[in-house]
Each structure stands twice: as C-alpha cells, then as structure tokens.
Amino acid sequence: MTDPATLTLDGKSYDYPVMSGTIGPDVVDIRKMYGQTDAFTYDPGFTSTASCQSKLTYIDGDQGVLLHRGYAIGDLAEQSSFMEVAYLLLNGELPSQGELKTFSTTITRHTMVHEQLATFFRGFRRDAHPMAIMCGVVGALSAFYHDSTDIHDPAQRVIASHRLIAKMPTIAAMAYKYSVGQPFLYPDNSLSYTGNFLRMTFGVPAEPYEVNPAVEKAMDRIFILHADHEQNASTSTVRLAGSSGANPFACIAAGIACLWGPAHGGANEAALNMLREIGTPERIPEYIARAKDKNDPFRLMGFGHRVYKNYDPRATVMQKTVREVFDALKVNDPLFDTALRLEELALNDDYFVEKKLFPNVDFYSGVILSAIGFPTSMFTVLFALARTVGWVAQWNEMITDPDQKIGRPRQLYTGPTQRDYVPVGQR
Ligand code: CMC
Fold this sequence. Notes:
The chain has helices at 33-37, 73-79, 82-91, 97-109, 116-121, 130-144, 154-180, 193-202, 213-226, 233-243, 248-259, 267-278, 284-292, 313-329, 334-347, 350-354, 361-372, 379-399; strands at 5-9, 12-16, 18-19, 27-28, 57-60, 65-68, 71-72.
C-alpha cells in the first residue's frame, strides 16, 4: 500500500489515496478534493490526469513500449491479424481458433450497409474530403440501426460494436469510390476483412479483382498498428461523448471528428504532404531549421508525441513494412529516402534530441499508403477505420465501469466579474 498523498492548502492538510495499476505510474485519487477544499486542479491537455481506469492498452512512453491487453505491439503486428487484435481488445484474451472463426464470420456478416445509405452519400459534393463524409455517414448510422442504440442493453451494445467494426471498411471504401466517381462495390464475404476492404476500394464491377496477398498483409498490419492507443484525444472524445449516454454511432462519429485534426490522425496526410514539399534530401536542413524556429508555426509532421519520448514502436514496424510493400509491388518512392534522411538528420540534431522528438506512427505510413494507391485524403480515413476497434472497446469498457460518470471538467474562470447590463442605445 502506498502512503496517501498530502495536499496543503490555506494552512490545512488533506490526504488523498494513491492508487496503483498493474504497471505504470501511480495515480492520486483527487475525486473528493473539490468537495473538501473548494479548489480544482489545473491541467489543460490532461498532461497529468488519468481520466479513467482501463485494462486495454498500456504505453511506456520513455521506453517506447505499447501493449494491448499485455501483448507487445511488435508481436501482434508480426504474428497476429487485425481480426484477432479486434477480438483481443474487445474480449480481453486472444481467441481460440474456433472463437476467431466465429468472430470473423460475425463481423463479415455485418459488412453490408443499409441500401438507403448509398443515397445519403449522394448528398455530398464529389470533392468533399472523405473525413468530412466519414463524420457525416458514421453519425448517420444511428438513424439506420435503431435496434442497436440502447446502451443499457448488453446485447445491443455487442451488435452495435460488431456493426461499427464491420461497416467501417464498407463506408471508407464508399467514401473513396464517391470521390473518384466510380460505382460502390458490395462486400464479398469470401474475402478477409482487409482483402474485402481492398477490393471494395480498388476493384470495379467490370472485372474481377485479385487481392495481392503482400498488400493485404501489409494493410492488415497497418490496421493492427492503429487499433488502439490508450486515452488519446479521439478515444477520450468517444468516452466523453459516451459518458452522457449518447448512442455508440454518435460517439464514434465524435471520435472521427477529433481524429481528423493534423495534430492527431490528420498527421499522416500532413506528413506525406510535407515530404512531397521537401522533395529532395538537399532541402531537409531548410525544413529542420523551420521546425526549430519559434517564430515559424511549421512542425515536422510525423515527429513528436505526447506520450512517447522514445522511438514510437509502431514507427519501427511501419518503417519495415515500407520495404515489404515496395518489394511486393516492385515500386520505389524516392520520398522514402527523403524520409529516412530526414529522420537521421533530426535524430542527430540537438533540438530534437533535447525535446525527445522521434518519428511517430504517421511518419512512414503515408509512404506505404501512397505506394498501395491511396490518395493522401484517404490516409486519416484508414486510421479511423482501424481505430474504430479501439474506440468501440474503450466505449464498452466505459459503459460497464462502475466509476463512470458524465465527463464534466471544470475551469479557472478569468473573464469579467458580474456587471450591469447597459441597453444598446446607451453603449
Ligand atoms: N516539430 C518541431 N517541434 C516540435 C514538434 C515537431 N513535430 N513536436 C513538438 N515540438 C516541440 C514544441 O514546439 C515544444 O517546444 P517548446 O517546449 O520549446 O515549446 C515541445 O516540442 C513540446 O511540444 P508540445 O506541442 O508541447 O507537445 P505535445 O505533447 O502537446 O504535442 C504533438 C504532441 C504530437 C501534438 C506534437 O509533437 C506535434 O504537433 N507533432 C506533429 C504532429 C504529429 O505528428 N502528430 C501525430 C501524433 S501520433 C499519431 C496520433 O496520435 O494521432
């Protein structure tokens, strides 16, 4: 048992229990603090705040460790499949062969979307960003699947979870097809989760589509790498939205909206755009200088992380996957050399060393996704597709957490104190 933490305020002392997890830093339980002291804590960006207890994902940012339910991300990326990881995150244990088969079949059976949803797509401009479409269409799912929006019914929660995981590739592929003016493809239940997604995205009804097994494997691995990441901004958004009792489709739409930002999931798109802008390795020093310049808002996209102060373990796998995809597709993108050189120069630069800024998952993902054939605007959509598993698992964990309350942070008010209203004619 760790000794309680003592807070002294206005000459009075208060003791707060210290809670320990299975690994990771202890937390000070300050739930009673406001009631006892009439003071709040101040922590913009939640840099020192644990918002919940969770059994799903553990990150040691200093060591560059990422575990899902105790399994290292490198092992999962190497040896498992996205469906297996989805099962693991949702259920807590790796599935047996039979459990995996049943789970995959269940997900496959939910891949079709309501036919009316195709009409919904047609309301968007063709040049709409696919993330804008994702926010709208996923939010609209609650209008199509009323029978799985009662969050108090465990069976409905399971169906909604399966539906979200299953339909996300279909919706993502539809968003792509819509932007290029090609017909939507229905899912093919004979294919794997990832193979099906590739076919719905890159296939056309006019001819058969052969899934390239190497690309399928790489894509599946990319999905694994993005499946969950503890209480990041979009996951916290999903939990916060869900804390009010909102239905899961609405909560996941909120997560998608948050993920879109360039500081979060939008960074993969921004990172590739940055590499394209840099163009050749000779121009790297100019961009490194800009990233270090306090008067320039430019940042090296795909670099730095709130939690990792070491190499992001997902970036290690991602870098390796670039070569595998290049070999499989017999392509070579000079931007990969630019990325490798940029990483090398940044990791030897005092600014990046002192601030512990390392490549994150988004640094190399753009190079791979572009080689597979995705336009940059689809990158964050792929992130959303994979992260839906994490969002859904975290949402389920929150709903069943006895400590769960509506999320309601407080503030340090710095506006005017009460003043008299002056009618408009007298101002
Ligand atoms: N390039 C240059 N300087 C940077 C960078 C960067 N990419 N990232 C952080 N810094 C500097 C920052 O200017 C600050 O300097 P100072 O202490 O002198 O003010 C210091 O490092 C700490 O940065 P911060 O913004 O206070 O750190 P944070 O934890 O709030 O932000 C971050 C983390 C990921 C938003 C930030 O590193 C960033 O903007 N990176 C680029 C965007 C990116 O790649 N995002 C993807 C994150 S991983 C995928 C995901 O989770 O979605």
